[in-house]
Amino acid sequence: MATRNVSRRMLAIGAPVLIGIAVLAALVGYRGMQAHRSQGDPALLERIAQYGRTAGADADAVTRGKYLAAAGDCIACHTAANGKAFAGGLALNTPFGKIVASNITPDKTYGIGAWSDAQFVRAVKAGVAPHAKLLYPAMPYNLYAKVGDEDILDILAYLKTVPAVHEPITANALPFPFNIRLLMFGWNLLFFDRTPFQPDPKQSVEWNRGAYLVAGLGHCTACHSAKNALGGDSDYLEGGDLEGWHAPEISGNGYLGLGKWSVADITTYLHTGGNRVGVAAGPMSEAVTDSLQFMNAADLKAMAVYLKSVPGSGATPPAPLAAGDATMALGRDLYRANCAACHRANGAGVDAMVPSLAANPGVQAPGANNVIRTILVGGRGAVTGSNPTGAQMPGFAWKLSDAEIAALATYVRNDWGNAAAAVGETDVARLRHPLDADTQMQPHPALSSGAKSVAPSEAQ
């Protein structure tokens, strides 16, 4: 629910259908929900009891839980900007409205301090909080369902050690009908696969570990899989749109995915935020900074092995635009004047600092949002313990027009072995205002028409 932007028309069509399904599901599920409220899930309680005897004597449970909480990137969503760790309050902007992340500190009033082990596991893996409160899948319980109970309880053991924050959070801001939690019965009926992770006996232990992390705690599909009109996942790891960004395909596809990256390339990228091809930016930069850099090399390598094995979209490159095309010629001139100093004339960039633009699958993505927004407002690479520089690129919204940015983006997407659809002036205009990048260089009032422009700071 927290990713792909969809049209209001699709929502208007889908909402009544979902309401109808939700009502039917509610009739079937209400009695079971009431049983869970009064008695709990016997099978779950038995599993918790069996593990509890082990966990109670395991002095390393908190250490394991801290690692697993980092792998799940819990702090990213459950900590507001400048807020206290895990105290919630971060508003997640979804196509359905704003969903505010909950307080998961051990405070007994506003956090999870009064929750039992079974209640915590059920909330994380089934999307049902105490008192049968249905969670929205912006909290990816549909993916955490793949995580073993033992790992979830280790995370709880760690969360019980963080400082309790006695602060309420603001309410969600969801319009009707999405503010009706009963709808989640219908959503779960349509899109929630409760099947636990099953190792593939035909694959290696390493591959299965990678699959477990990607499908579960890593919740990679939350960003890197497309979403349908009702927020259900589709096109596994083939890329998706998120708040103006495009999360690229991360399959083994050689054109749009990771097929041309080695396992070492992927592992390095996940750990440091950069490699010989790309540098993590935007939401991926946050994921590396807050989560992936803290994972051990074996787990990151396992994820890389698994990701390269996913078949992906099967997309192949189109014919690149001709070098003599007028748009390409303008883009080339703009690149040489504004970009070549850092990205180099051949588009090769600087390893782990300035991304290579040559043969870069992210640059060639079906949507050019990432390229356009980076030219408009710039960006900063991930900051990690092993790569603390976090090189920053300035924005060019003040300097380049929509037409010029479109030409520059088109050129970058079609030179040095790249091939992708041309970028239109309207594509740039669509992003400029939402990014607060409306200011462009204007001619000095004293200059006649056609004279060279000056930067806003130079104008009196």
Automatic annotation (TrEMBL):
Lineage of producing organism: Bacteria, Pseudomonadati, Pseudomonadota, Betaproteobacteria, Burkholderiales
Organism name: Robbsia betulipollinis
Coiled coil: none
PANTHER family: ALCOHOL DEHYDROGENASE CYTOCHROME C SUBUNIT (PTHR35008:SF8), BLL4482 PROTEIN-RELATED (PTHR35008)
Name under which the protein is recorded: C-type cytochrome
Renumbered residue ranges of the record's region Disordered: 439-460
Residue ranges constituting the Cytochrome c domain according to the UniProt record: 60-163, 205-311, 326-416
Compartments where found: Cell membrane
Record flagged with keyword Metal-binding: yes
